[in-house]
Task: structure prediction
Amino acid sequence: MQLPTLTEHKSSEPIHLTDAAVALLQSSPFSIDLKPSPGKGYVLTPGAMVGAMVVGGLAISIKPKFSIPNLLFLISFALNPKAWKDIGFDFKEENAILEAIIPGFVHQVRRAVARGVLHGYVTKEEALNMLRGRIRIDEQLRRRYGRLPPIEVAYDDYTPDIEVNRLIKAALARLRRLQIKNGNVRSSLHSFDVALTEVSSVDYRGLPLPEVAFNRLNAHYEPAVRLAKLILRATSLEAEHGQVRSSSFLVNMNDVFEDFVVVALREALSLSQHSFPQGAKDKTLTLDKGQKINLEPDVSWWEGGNCVFVGDAKYKKTKAGGIVHPDLYQLLAYTVASDLPAGLLVYAKGEDQETVHQTIHAGRELWVRTLDLTQSPDAILRQIDVIAGVIRNMKARPPARRAPEAIAV
Result:
């Protein structure tokens, strides 16, 4: 059964569903709010995930609030801001998200392995009939006291079976399990079977995706690996849920928006990832003197170990039971922890009005700015330039007056 196409965060018209379809939706691991409409069926409201899913025999498609080409622009710019037009996505409006992304992934994998599949040194520990590397003396005595061979050894093996290749191979395998209508797109996923033969097959479901450090030796792999991780996250909801088989390709709009805002502002400000990290990675920002309340703002600017600007990016206003304006409370905490007079909250347009909140007593300003994602890519980047100007002005201001010691956390 194919349901009408839904729009993220938008309630559908009442849809007539069979009891079996209702049971499938209620038992599935996907986030779709289901409310009965008396005598008219059910109203379905998706969350922040867009893409396609199949739950049992029920097929569901969810589109973003703006155009799919614009969604692909946000993703591709975050992947490579200097060459986002060369990512290889199919930007035709009529394409589904999955079938628009696959050509880009295949294109980037092809570019990555054009010089040959990347090799690296991996430490291996095993029992061999000959000496290689160093003897693991403790293991040899524990397992084979007085017996040679085999010999317990550890050695460095130069191999293609390294994490970047495992991630790419896993993403290709995950995509092959999905329902892809275009035959050319399907066949392209087998283009690298021979090249990746010696690479281990790792599923990664239930496992954290590994962090990869890129340098001059493996930088040409970065777009392909980042796309592989996006694909693995997008298909991570594929699961056995009770007796119901579920498969999906779902992109989290919250993640897409945050990734784009961070990368786009970093580019507009001509800063490095070290100076302008996402989630304050490798930085320390705490709200209390005991340094137990750690904060991780989406965007922050650091100079000489000091935070000189702080902000957050929210695609959708956060809803917390019984709490009004949780995003502003969070931003206030960031400004207090960083001892800055102002902070910035960037929303997708439609979530809030652009304004500046002047706090009482704390002496902070909480700026709210929005991005209209329905505009052309060039227009979106011009909006980013305006927001970058706001950040420069904030950074130039002196530190906030410290709160009295009596009210310190």
